[in-house]
Specification:
The protein is mainly β. The chain has a single domain, classed as YVTN repeat-like/Quinoprotein amine dehydrogenase (Methylamine Dehydrogenase, Chain H, 7 Propeller), CATH 2.130.10. It is built from three helices and 28 strands. The N and C termini lie far apart (about 40 Å).
């Protein structure tokens, strides 16, 4: 998706120059949050035990989707060489800006050394992606190609390219690893594919401009945000159909979706509305709301579900929410235009193979 808000012109050299200083900080005792910063083209490493940045990882390209391997050893980040255009720019003018397809790919970062191991092919202009539950494959949306790329993380090679809905963005793999869904922004649907061979299985219509989606832990339902529709669709996976539509507050532009580890809450970032709304899956109603930073997008939870992290693009920060109290307990300055967040155990806690 071409981000449609004003470009913030800020020098990035200070942040990158500080990378060495942050890298020398003590290893975190708790979990680590990795924040992708689209404009400063880096990843901020946040220690969740003190909610402060301890390192920056420069990547040299637009960074958006971000995830960590199930064993916590690798951080994966989607890189793009396509331009980032402000909302006042027409599509025709944006198309005139330089494009460097050589920068497209998925960076594989060693979590312990915070260095890029390799950049794997991710298709054209990779944005969001999902990992298989065993970490063996990546499923990447390629918006400008109406396709999804499947990558083998062991070989780093492209396995398949799958045609999906127009302008694909959000990607989610089922907890059992048997299905992968991709949203189609202008097709207004989600596409189910077989992760083994990339075969398209079926489509489900949802609301206008679906952005993100998340499974309940048992894989029975999907919650799909719709930016233009201002809603969240509830999809019954077995029935292959939408069974409910949940209206978000007026003025919402639903973006990121995150399901609590116990499946009792679904968190939805509302973009320019500036909140995270809380859905109870038992009733499919909104049961809470918390005001966070400017235009929240990506979301991440600690494994115990006690803390929620929101990437707030225009304000260049991350909000930390106590989910029991639904209260912001910290605001962390990160890089420029934070896009996504992923939480994982610190590398020091990972046992040797």
């Amino acid at each position: 998706m071409r981000w449609r808000h004003r470009m913030v012109v800020v020098a990035i050299c200070g942040a990158l120059a500080g990378a060495g200083r942050f890298a020398a900080s003590a290893a975190p005792a708790g979990y680590v949050a990795y924040v992708s910063n689209e404009v400063s083209q880096d990843v901020s490493v946040v220690a969740t035990d003190r909610d402060s940045v301890i390192a920056f990882i420069p990547l040299g390209a637009r960074v958006r989707g971000i995830h960590v391997s199930p064993d916590g050893r690798f951080v994966y980040a989607a890189l793009s060489g396509s331009p980032r255009c402000p909302p006042t720019m027409s599509d025709a003018d944006c198309d005139k800006l330089p494009v460097n397809k050589q920068k497209d790919g998925i960076a594989q970062i060693d979590a312990a050394t915070r260095r890029v191991v390799r950049t794997m092919p991710g298709g054209s202009d990779p944005e969001q992606f999902a990992l298989s539950p065993d970490g063996a494959r990546l499923f990447v949306s390629n918006e400008d190609a109406a396709s999804a790329s499947i990558i083998d993380t062991r070989t780093g090679k492209l396995v398949a390219t799958v045609p999906v809905g127009t302008e694909p963005e959000g990607v989610s793999a089922s907890p059992d690893g048997k299905l992968v869904f991709v949203t189609g922004e202008t097709a207004n649907n989600i596409t189910a594919i077989d992760p083994a061979d990339g075969k398209v299985l079926f489509h489900v219509d949802v609301d206008q401009r679906p952005r993100d989606l998340g499974f309940l832990p048992d894989g029975s339902r999907l919650y799909v945000s719709a930016e233009v529709g201002g809603t969240v669709s509830v999809v019954d996976v077995a029935q292959r159909q939408r069974i409910a539509v949940i209206a978000m507050p007026q003025g919402s532009r639903p973006m990121g979706v995150k399901v609590a580890p116990d499946g009792k809450r679904v968190y939805v970032a509302t973009g320019r509305h500036g909140t995270v709304e809380v859905i109870d899956p038992a009733t499919n109603t909104i049961v809470g709301s918390v005001k966070v930073g400017t235009r929240p997008w990506g979301l991440a939870l600690t494994p115990d579900g006690k803390k929620l992290y929101t990437a707030n693009g225009p304000s260049n920060d991350v909000s930390v929410v106590d989910t029991d109290r639904l209260k912001v307990i910290a605001t962390i300055a990160v890089g420029q235009s934070p896009w996504g967040v992923a939480v994982a155990p610190p590398p020091a806690s990972i046992p040797p193979r």
